[in-house]
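Repro:
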Amino acid sequence: MVPGRFDRFLDTSGDILGKEAIAVLYALVVAGPFVLIAALLFLAERYAAQALRPPAARGDRMTKFVALGALAALAIGCGSAGGGTATGFRGYVKRGPTMPVCRVGVPCTAPAKGVKLRFSRAGKVVATATTNDRGWYRVVLRAGRYTVGINAKATAFGPRTVTAQSDVMKRRDFLIDTGIR
């Protein structure tokens, strides 16, 4: 996990943890600077209105100037949080054929539920992803070439190798051949 990257909060099955909390954090990161800029404009307008008051009623100008500066720094800081795109793969894993004779209009494949995909480099497993009930998975990897293996019985599986590009979450679907003929 890399701190500050909302797209990396995944559990072992590849599902996102705390979707609601992540949505709130993402909304704050995206909307935060706009809210703070609006607050700055509001305070600047109030400050301008106070400048027209007699000196005894104004208060300390330096305190207000420091507060406006702190709000501006906070707005700039919030705008730079998060950033970047994850590197890795997402996609659909299906198994098939699911019956000896496929018929027109009847699906001959099905989602591969609970299949564990193993992504290896130089013979060492560096990441795994488990498909959900609908056959979808997501895995975050470093850029590079990977060999993919599975924990399911299959006569054929593909593709066996994939290449992750830096800052690209590429879609890569897999087919598990059940061997039913």
